[in-house]
Write a structure and sequence with these properties.
The chain has 277 residues and is mainly alpha-helical. The chain has 14 helices and no strands. It is globular. The model has no long low-confidence stretch (mean pLDDT 87).
Amino acid sequence: DPVDLSDAAYMDQAQPVTDAAQTGSAELIEQAVPFRFTLSIYQVLYAVFLMVALGLRLIQLGTIVLNDSEAHEALSVFRVITPNAAGSALIPHAPLMFAANTLIMAIGGSNNLTARLATALVGVLIVMLPYLFRRWIGQTGALLVSGMLALSPVLLTASRTMSGAVWTIALALGALWFVGRFAETRRMLWALAASACVAIMLLASESAGFLVVLMLGGGLLFALLTTDDPDHSIRQRVRETISGWPWLRGLAISVIVLGIVGSVFLLHIDGVGALGD
């Protein structure tokens, strides 16, 4: 039938034109909407937890009088950044917090707010750290932990009162995450970061930081002894991680980091003595 043949030929010729038109429309749509931003319910809830943690820790932070321990830490910083201050230099009980407070108070002035600000922000960081562990404890589990930390009265009080335990907790969680990443990837960077966190936790976070290191080691030993591991795959992974750990480089990095933290980034060399004290 000549009519049918002509129709078929027409359709064959029209199809490339239609495809080109559709392609052109798609390109126009992409140009009109170049970027699509989406948020999951988990991300929204993490943002809510972040705002709650910031609000609870920062609102009226400088209105409450410093207690004895806080006053000691703040005064040790004040006498370093103010050469003409009366009295002799004090030895800080938490060299890492001392280093952070020195920088903040030197820039923002000496008052109750600036003295507490660094510890309060570390408390906010702890609330968000479970997000890093979602690959191991699950998305929902990490979200629940983050929510509980945001509302924890113990963590809130410690974060608002310059507690060295807040810094120790952050370092412990950071060290655990770095160790986990090294076990997965065998990248030396993660091992060195974990070594530095443990070294600071031992000597620069607070006087009881070494107890947390002992508890982490005891927790690992308890897990290995009680976990059902019939094919010994977990124990083999732990042995491989320990044997592949860069011990000498980790020690060298730890010494360097402790020197930098103790000397307040080489601005206060005498501060290194606080590590030993």
